[in-house]
Amino acid sequence: MDADEDVAPAVRSILDAADARDAPESGRVAVDPRSLDAAFAAAEADGRAPVIAEVKPTSPTTDGTRTEDPVELARAMVDGGAAALSVLTEPEHFGGSPEYLQSVRDAVDVPVLRKDFLLEESQLDAVEADVVLLIARFVGDDLADLLAAARDRGFQVLVEVHTREELERAIDAGAEFVGVNNRDLAKLEVDLSTFETVAEHAPDDVTLIAESGVSTPDDARRMRRAGADALLVGSAIMDYEDADDPTAAVQANTERLTAAESQTHDND
Fold first, then answer.
1. What is the pTM of this model?
2. How many CB atoms lie within 10 A of CB 56?
3. Catalytic amino acids?
4. Domains of the chain, earliest start first
5. Among 77, 107, 155, 227, whose CB has the most other CB atoms within 10 angstroms?
6. Of 76, 81, 83, whose CA–CA distance to 247 is shortest?
7. 112-152 pLDDT tens trace
């Protein structure tokens, strides 16, 4: 793991928990993944903004824990036009689990990203997913080896970066999917200009995903204009606390963002 200590206390707690987590006992996985590129292309062909909708019970930046059936929420996101899903498997801080992801993946036909803080190769074997996340800042010099180990198991790999320097490391390691996190993990502050600044240095053959801070159709359009091939959206889609029907609210929230490019600014 990267020796960088300049992160928010909540993030340090997550990393410490990940570092202490026992290796899975299920053995090495082998995945036949659903294509993320194909899912994005299908969304665009259908006139939708490619969105990876995130199913998460809770997080350090939200209040409370959601108790709705994750499978029903996932289906609502797909019905709302999500090209892919992201599912949390981090247990202590996000309320996720490998079983949580498995139940969602079994219920949908779109690619599913495993969202977790993976620090070593053995952690890749906790559950089959179509895509796994590697955060460049936290895996440090192990990025290339972990990326290769994930691909050897069949995973597609989303490498998360926050700076131009991390982008360069991701490209040097062979990343094909790069997520630019608009959230600064040192301060937990979100700035959409982060994607704009970093994305302009990305090569054309890399699939770019804007992560964090996309809350409105206008945000979605802004990120797409800046070069985002897709958007990873969690909180804005999972915002249903006051809704009488959570699944209907999640579907409507997803539709609002996937339809962003066909909406006018007056619809925001």
1. 0.90
2. 23
3. 54, 56, 115, 160, 181, 211-212
4. 9-20+38-261 (3.20.20.70)
5. 77
6. 76
7. 999 999 999 999 999 999 999 999 999 999 999 999 999 99
